[in-house]
Amino acid sequence: EISHIRNQILTLLKPILLHALNKMESRLGPLQTCVGMYQSLNKMENLMEEYVKSRPSAIHKLWFEFRKREMERKELDKTHELEFYSDDEEDAEDEDANELGGDTQDDARKLHDPPVHANSNVEDPARAFGEWLPTWYEAVLILLSEERRRAHAVFGANLAPEIIVKVLNECFRPILSSFKTRLNAICPAVGKAVAARVSASASSFDAVCRAYEATLQFLSVAYEHMVDFDSMDYDSMDYDGDDHNNNAANDDDNMKASKNSSSDDPAGSVEQSVPTRTKTPVQLHMMARSVFISITSPFSPYQTNFADLEMMHSDTAARMVSSDMHNAVSGRVTNLSSLQDSVERLAGLAPFMFPLVQAAIARFESVNGGFGAPKALGTVDNVLSRHIEELSMSFHTLSSNATSDNESMEGFDEQQVQSALEALKIAGVIRRELNMFSNKTKQRLSIMVGRMATTIDKEAALTHAVVNSVTNADIVPESLSPADIESLLATFVCAEVKDKEGTAEKAPSVQEVKRLANDNKNIGEVVALFPKSVNNTVRLVQSCQSFVFDICAHIPFKNIDLMPSLPIWGQEESMWSSTAADSYGTLPQSYITQVGEHMLALVQALEPFASDEDSLHLANLVMEGVDHVADRSWRDFANAIHYIDLDENEFISTLKKGNRLKDLVLGHVHNSFEEGDDYGDDEDGDSSAANEFCNEWLDAVCSSVTGKLLERTMRIQKLSRKGCEHLTVDYNYIVNVLSALGVSGHPHPLLSHVAELSSMDSESLQARIVESADDEFGLLKTEVRIAQMRGIPTN
After folding, report:
1. Which of 216, 341, 472, 671 matches a 20 to 30 Å C-alpha distance to 650?
2. What would you measure as the largest C-alpha separation in the chain, in angstroms?
3. How far is Cα 776 from Cα 655, in angstroms, rounded to an integer?
4. Helices (H) and strands (E) in the chain, counts
5. What is the residue-wise DSSP string for 590-635?
6. Rounded distance between C-alpha atoms, residue 24 and residue 49, angstroms
7. pTM of the entire predicted model
8. Within a 10 A sphere around the Cβ of 326, how many other Cβ atoms?
9. Which residues touch 186 (CB under 8 Å, ≥6 apart)?
């Protein structure tokens, strides 16, 4: 009966309360009177509910005013391909607005000062929302600041923090569905429309992430308004143990309900019941935590689908860069200018993706807080590795275009080589940027794993405090930074079940990120964060090395290719051959002199690049294994003498170096610059580094030209006596040229050996073949082939 009477009194008091709430802006007296009456009836929950519902009305009007502005914008730009609202989304917003009152839009017009202009962000609705959202958050913070003062005056210091939390919740509760609709209009998080919408606007997913970051900043400031523990008198608070545990359980249930209902009913409030007593600091913190989870629930689909959304977002930019690289190398290289232009364009495009993948890691840190790191890093690796692969293919295409047109590369130009050497700088930049990006990512992962562990341990401590009815404020943070809130929300949305079952030491996600962040070889295996990109960088380095080599060796190869078809090899001596010209002796032929002149000029072409300290530093980052460019020539030589070896790579490597052949060949002369001598030890560091770079390239080109010359020699069908004389002279000429270069390991022992075999008489050559029983290095097959060319029996 007493309860019935109280309800009747409440019915009579409600109009008075509503009137007091309407007059609250000018007078607090009537509302304070109502507080006293409701308190005497032990019905403060009813008053608090009505009070909280009345506070954010102006905030809601501002929210839906933005939608009206966008509708007016659409009327001004009906042809825009990315409409901010579909018809269904507009209906959803209308329903939300109607729940708050039919005059919402008209009243909001009075509150919102910016007029609508025909050219106001017409091109990018995502940008318009991104710029507007912080202004709306600012309005909410102003309300909370005002509420902090007013709630103290109306409800007292003990209830004021709880009122502020409830007001914040009410600011968002009716508009969460609309919030989700607006985010979905910018970038769908799930469904078939994702790829099309993300592709239509390269900044759409980034806009959502920036909105999320703005939300984290807002919640950090909002927490400062809500928490006022210093002013609360906990000793005089009216609560008991049972209520404390029940309230804590309710908060925990509400948190779970928020996660389960975020997709089905995002507009539902986290707070399902109002406590009957003043909350403890732990309870108040858990209540604020639940409200934060509810407020950010529209972003949870983007957190769970981060890797897929990031792949589509980054792939849009990657396709644009790929198209530009294709255009840079698609045309014919008709002159030096076109070669330089192609290389310069590739140099500008090569590092383009690194700022984008760095932004992707920043988005991952902000949205996922380190959870799901392997999949997110795999996404970044896929994007970056494809870019590096496209760059590698571009240099392969450019090399083919530059060397296939013989007329455009007819004469040697030092600038051709210097332009080609820029490719080494490009590869060096990629390797340097990849190493820096990997190291920075490891540093960020180390920071993330610290936050993850701290958050998981704090959550465990708070849960323990709730279960054990802890009432003091020591365990509750006095403030929450955006990073703290980011980690809290990421833990709630993205963490695995096992991550929440104990401490951080047992959390699988924490241990996985810790493993990825490990860069100490003494502790354990160093993990490559981006293995595909590392592997493709190796291929890029080889592609750039091959491009430089193709430019450097194009003229020698072009001349040597024609060698087997020269008629001089089979030409017989005439009985009338004692002419004036013959009195001067046999001279090197033009094909070999052009090769020699090119090799000597190549030194001058390499030196300007090597003398630039910055260029040399970048190039030296990618000089490992440069001798691979000569492998093909030596492999062709092995095929020409019909040499078959089970371990072909080992054979080619041994044959290419030639060190083990020195004591087995004929006519080899030891040079002062051979490996192991002290030639050049008195040079300074910079000069030595430049000389080493030049010598590495000269070694690679000389080795390949030598292999090519030997291979084409083995293709000669017939060698007459006169042909042998010319071959001997040609080989002696190239031996002298390579000796003059002063490169260790050159001339190759086989060059002087072939020259000797060409000048030997038939009986001596036959005896040599009989004595050469061991053919470990292909010497016997080379000698047999020379004998066959000369028509000397070998059996």
Report:
1. 671
2. 145
3. 10
4. 31, 0
5. HHHHHHHHHHHHHHHHHHHHHT-HHHHHHHHTT-TTGGGGGHHHHH
6. 16
7. 0.82
8. 13
9. 84, 125, 126, 129, 201, 204, 207, 208, 211
8-state DSSP, 663: T
Average of per-residue pLDDT values in the chain: 80
Q: 681, 686, 672, 664: which is closest to 750 by C-alpha?
A: 664
Structure tokens at 740: 């003059």
The token duo for 207 is 């806009």
pLDDT reading at 4 higher than 80 = no
Contact yes or no for 753/667 (Cβ under 8 A): yes
The residue type of 436 is M
Environment class of 606 (CB within 10 Å of its CB; exposed 0-12, middle 13-18, buried 19+): buried
Chain CA centroid to CA 35, Å: 59
- What single-letter DSSP state applies at residue 716? -
| Nearest one of 605, 742, 736, 760 to 683, comparing CA atoms | 742
Give the chain's radius of gyration (CA, Å). Answer: 40
**In angstroms, what CA-CA distances link 373 with 87, 212, 516?**
37, 19, 9
Whether 287 contacts 197, CB under 8 Å: no
What pLDDT sits at residue 257? 39
Rounded distance, CA 763 to CA 198, Å? 80
What is the distance between the alpha carbons of residues 733 and 591, in angstroms, rounded to a whole number?
11
Cis peptide before 125 (omega within 30 of 0): no
Interior CA angle at 586 toward 582 and 588, to 5°? Answer: 145
Q: pLDDT (tens digit, 9 = 90+) per residue, 699-722?
A: 999 999 999 999 999 999 999 999
**One-character DSSP codes across 205-274:** HHHHHHHHHHHHHHHHHHHHHH--GGG--GGG----HHHHHHHHHHHHHHHHHHHHHTTT-TTS-S--S-
Q: Which two tokens stand for residue 448?
A: 């993330």
Give the list of residues 6+ apart from residue 660 with CB closer than 8 angstroms, or none.
Answer: 654, 777
Spatial neighbors of 389 by CB under 8 A, at least 6 apart, are 536, 539, 540
CA distance 430 to 622: 10
Over range 49-68, report the average pLDDT. 85
Please say whether the beta carbons of 779 and 789 come within 8 A. Answer: no
Q: Which of 274, 249, 73, 247 is nearest to 155 (CA)?
A: 274
451's tokens: 């936050």
Rounded CA separation 48/30 (Å): 15
Instruction: Compute the residue count for the chain.
Output: 795
